[in-house]
Specification:
heterodimer, A: 388 residues, alpha/beta, Peroxisomal Thiolase, Chain A, domain 1, 9-stranded mixed β-sheet, two-stranded antiparallel ribbon, 11 strands, B: 175 residues, mainly beta, 5-stranded antiparallel β-sheet, 2 helices, 9% helix, extended, binds zinc ion
Amino acid sequence: MGMRKVAVIGAGMTKFVRRAQETPKELSWEAARMALESCELTMDDIQAVCMGTAPDAFDGVHMKGEYLSDGAGAWRKPYLRAFVGGGTGVFTPIQGWYHVASGLFDVVLLVCEEKMSSFYPHAQAAFVTIFDHTTERPLKPNLLWIFAIEMNRYMTAYGINKKDIARVAVQHKQNAANHPCAMLGEADITVDDVLNSEVLAWPVQRLDVSPVSDGAVAIILAAEHVARRLTSKPVWIEGVGWNLDTAYWTNRDLAYPRYVEYAARQAYEMAGIQEPRKEIHIAEPYDPFDYKVLHHLEGLGLAERGKAVDLYLNGTAAPDGDMPVCPSGGLLGVGNPIAAAGLMKIAELFWQLRGEAGARQVPGSPKKGIAQAWGDLMQVGTVVIMGR
Amino acid sequence: MTARIKNFPGVSLSEKDFEEGKILFVHDELKADYAWDTGIGIGAYLAGLKRGVILGVRCGHCRKIVVPPRTVCEWCFHPMDEYVPVKDTGMVNTFSLCYVTWDVKRITEPEIPAVIALDGASALSETSVIMGGIMHKLGEVEPKQVKIGTRVQAVWKPESEREGAITDILYFKPI
Ligand SMILES: [Zn+2]
């Protein structure tokens, strides 16, 4: 395609917490500083900054990109905030990728930040404005509706039961017990804990859902000639894809995420991957809800439709399985500061592929991983494939 | 990297820290009033609801009939301007029993939001698109009795009380 190779060379992140004392700017700075230190660069080496952060409504601040700019190190630099809802955290590295792949810049800093706790008393209510103001909002919709509605459609279409889906939440929260930044890591959690948790919007129960969280993650991308000079272990961005389905969400078949499939196909083609199930060693699909992981694994072509749950039942998705899924602990375990949660998946693949994931390190020297996020009104898919 | 770092940044606070005044914070309420134009497609939809009719719109090019009406066909990008009534009956495509309000208050009688595939709109296409799917609520039904596939019909407000809004349909009930 005439594009330059782009590597991830550094990463940093804050703890994910229910409520951080730090402001959004301060969280951004903490993550950015860590990412720079991790590859021994300073702000002078950074030529452009990509910021990812979700709705302004969480902060009650207009133009959040500009608001966060000092913490993100954007002063006197080309700077742009990307926003595709929950898909933002995996879109921001795509944006950074084309900044570098195109030849415009050699070194780019990506920062994704979210502080959901400022919205009082609960960030949930900030989501009401994602529904159509004329045809939907008069019904007083709750964000949980669309997920519960989608989960029910998915379960019913394929005959999957809640007990099996709960295995996803259990696995991710157990994985997160080994993540030093995790909010909800629980080594001893059981399927019964999930099934006995409060029913919020049947079939969605408390432990099927990721928490609202505060946190930030930063990544540094470099062109090949710079990456090879700075590190002996660059992790390449080998494929990217993003795609949008109809915004008339009730006009879609909610059993299958076609937008993920289209985004994944774009990324696989670019990465030269023909058999994803054999070639992808680690998957970090977006997991704000447990069923959503299964949905996304199917959209990514990593499982047959309606069969992704088998990966959890037969151990394939476990950290020591053939294709670990969310070894980080995911949004269900580490936490879900929206844009930051997506970029956390990129950081996890970076650490895993370099063999630096500590207690979470999956065995077998994985070579290729895929990260995916999803957002807007449930219709955007963003996919990044990384390899070494 | 994560293996080498001992202390990650980020100070975790609890609700208690607020209540006990251990940290400083600023509270504010934003005021935001809007008057949204309904536009052409949704304007026709709302005018139809006031008359007790659910309108879809037909694409003259690819012939899909979709609800709610819009002025451009997403599939072929041709204009859509032929408004056609669909039925006020349909099938529950999916639903939830929701015990939390939009602003996170707990309720004991669940709300039953659903996607209803209306009769008379284009059926499931090869791309699995439900052209007639709209979001509404179900009523006059035992929550535990609702199933995907249940046949339902709109329950309308009395004509004199309709105002050209999605709430002119009170809910859908099983038939
Ligand atoms: Zn058309």
